[in-house]
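Posted in: Protein Modeling Q&A

I'm a second-year student putting together a small comparison for a lab meeting, and my supervisor asked me to include a predicted structure for Peptidoglycan endopeptidase. I've never done this before, so apologies if this is the wrong subforum. The sequence is pasted below exactly as I got it from our records. If anyone can share the C-alpha cell output, I'd also love a short note on what stands out.
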Amino acid sequence: MSTPGEQFAAIAHSLLGTPFRLHGRSASSGVDCVGLVALTLHATGRTSRSPVGYTLRNLAADAYLPLLEANGFFPATDVPLTGDLVLARPGPGQFHLLIQSGCGGHIHAHAGLGRVVLTPPPLSWATLGRWRLAPD
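Accepted answer (user: helix_wrangler)
Welcome! Here is the predicted structure, written out as C-alpha cells:
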C-alpha cells in the first residue's frame, strides 16, 4: 500500500508534459506550480485551496504558507520522502513549488520550458522549506 505522498507524487508524475499556464488549473489548458499541486491534490480525492493574486515574481511567500496546512500538509524536517512538497527560490523575488519524485528529482511546472517537467537531482535552487501530506 502506498503512502499519501507516494500517491501524490505518482499523480504529479502522470502530469509530466502538461502545458504551463500562469494561474492554470487544468491538465488540458495548463498549470503553474500552484495549479500542479491543486490538480494533484484534487486527483487524490482531496479538496484544495489555492492562493489568489500571486504573480511570477513575489516579494514574500509568508502570506501563502498557511495554505499549506489548510491543504493537508505539515512541515517535514527529516529526510526527504517521495511526495514531499518543496518551496524553493529560483531567483530574487521568485518562489516555486516542486514535488519530490521517487527518483530524488522534482516534478514541477517550469515556466521557461513551458510544461510540467521532472528535474533530476540535485536541486540547484535554495530550498526554503519542505512539507509532507498528512494521511486522510
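A couple of things worth pointing out for your meeting: The helical segments are 4-14, 33-43, 66-70. The chain has one domain: 4-133.
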